[in-house]
Amino acid sequence: MTKPIAPIVIRGEVITDNLIEVGGRGGDLAFATPDAHQYIDKLPLRDPSRLADLYTLDFADILDYASALAERLDLATNPYLQEACELSYLTSPATPSIVKGSYMGLRHLLDRDFITEMVETTVGIRYLEGWVKERLIDGTELETRCFGSRTLHIVAGNAVPLSLVTILRNMVLRSDAIIKAPSNDPFTALAIARTMIDMAPDHPLTKHLSVAYWKGGDQAFERRLYQPQNIEKIVAWGGFAALKHVTQYIQPGLELISLDPKRSASIIGKEAFNSDEAMREAAVRLASDIGALNQKGCVCARVVYVQSGTDEAGLDRLNRFGRQVYDAMIGLPNSLSTAPKRYDPALKAHVDALRLEDEWYKVIGGKDGEGAVICSQLPEPVSFSASLDDRTANLVPVDSLDEVMGAVDAYTQTVGIYPESAKEALKDILPLFGAQRIVSLGYAAAMKWQAPQDAIEPMRRMGKWISNQIASPETTQAPWLRRPIDM
Q1: Which residue spans traverse the membrane (predicted)?
Q2: What pTM was computed for the model?
């Protein structure tokens, strides 16, 4: 069987020479790709003045380009996407139905109204279109504008849309992007880039996108590329070790925008037990937050604090609720969740061991590697809570929502809460402990790119915010006209 090729794309040029063999994450696929060492001098945009062609475009031009690209990102007709989708069945941590559903939905990220709203809420379109003026109280006229930058993107591969989100952010900011394709999704960004080349090979937006694969941690390669004369910002998604590795290259003139690993949790208020209907609703919502993307995203629920009470009646409520959550999870649509691709054997060993401790834990499901719900019979999570994955969640009973705060820290990204009244009571408290995103239960995976991310505003950080002060002695007190001080 001929090995697939993942080309290098450098600003409109598709390169398939100097091939070497590499392996996707998990060992399910070997593919060929050009040796990035041979092209390291071509990858960076060394002359910043070459960004100027992006400023011949206005925002409407960018929207027109995105709309035209959306028409071509149709999985049914795009051969690049079709090939990338088939190959991603092997490399992705998600199962084929989830992967295919993600590819089918890519084009919707390029909707004109969505892009307009995203840019307006995260940056402000007027700051990208020109200098925004205001007069300060001392009479100085201040102009501010957001410029694009030369950026390296180390993209995560646990969700297909992240490559297109990265490309879209680059487009609207008028930046030059080098995307380091991840080993568990080496084909998506390439498929989009090749579609752009076929559509508009000489367009400035096409000419400011490069995609390449190289093995992470290749210090000989990275020391040469990760330099301020080559790139100004690194946007890095990934695990702790990967991000720790990148920090060694940060220096004056090279900024790191870190979208680092997080854990997420859920909180179920006592109102969920007011009626059978409320319990069913909370169970379905929670099942969605656990099962989405087979729990591979940072946004997915893992430890769930349930205000069921910790007495005998409370534990009975918790266990009945856990059964409903499990049943709802098994019934989720296969575009959202399925039985895991391969259930982690170490995790399964932990889960199976708990079955022997049924006085302290009730384990629902998991015998066939389909995922499980673990109901703690004490108000504390399982010892391996940081390793929960593959649709395996731990429900922890509590008497009061105040008990939840000790489990929230700087690693906590998303907290899904039910009902809304509980969220209203907690939304001003949880951020003090470290929570970064608060959502209605069931919507954890419905990421809103119009919002901040990981408690920062990455779109604003990716731009360069430049000010121009306009002052004269007639409008603003001149420093050189200050009165001397008697000594």
Answers
A1: none
A2: 0.94
